[in-house]
Specification:
The protein has about 130 residues and is α+β, with helices and mostly antiparallel strands. The chain has helices spanning about 10-25, 35-40, 60-65, 95-100, 105-125; strands at about 1-5, 30-35, 50-55, 75-85, 85-95. It has a single domain (about 1-125), classed as 2-Layer Sandwich (TATA-Binding Protein). It has five helices and five strands, in the order βαβαβαββαα. Strand 4 and strand 5 form a beta hairpin.
């Protein structure tokens, strides 16, 4: 269900490289949530780093929404750059598994496969 890749890059470099890979692959970055800074800003002792990139390909999103508008709650796709026990990782929840859990519409399988291939490619290019 998850695809995670470890990188030798710093957290900051991995985040910069993911941003570039997203754009190179025809997706847009809608927002970046800096969960680490948000938690620390709320007074929570959180030592790890975590940025969640909300990414979207409008044509693919439109196909999903045309098939089942309720799936708006699963969009946009999210790819995270995070640290864990001194390692930097980049990962995502695989779209095929996620959409299969949320819908039984066979027309979405191909869309999910295409999005999954693209998002995994982004992770691999950024690592």
């Amino acid at each position: 269900m998850y695809y995670t890749a470890e990188t030798a890059k710093s957290f900051e470099q991995a985040a910069t490289d993911l941003d570039a890979a997203v754009k190179k692959n025809g997706f847009g970055v809608l927002h970046i949530h800096d969960l680490g800074n948000t938690l620390r800003g709320k007074g929570i002792a959180f030592e790890e780093q975590c940025r969640v990139f909300e990414v979207c390909n409008p044509a693919q999103a439109a196909k999903v929404l045309a098939a089942d508008m309720r799936l708006n709650m699963a969009l946009p796709c999210r790819i995270s750059v995070f640290t864990q026990k001194g390692k930097t990782l980049i990962g995502l929840i695989k779209p095929v598994a996620m959409l299969s859990a949320l819908s039984n519409d066979p027309s979405l399988v191909q869309v999910a496969r295409e999005v999954e291939a693209a998002t995994i490619r982004m992770v691999d290019e950024a690592k």
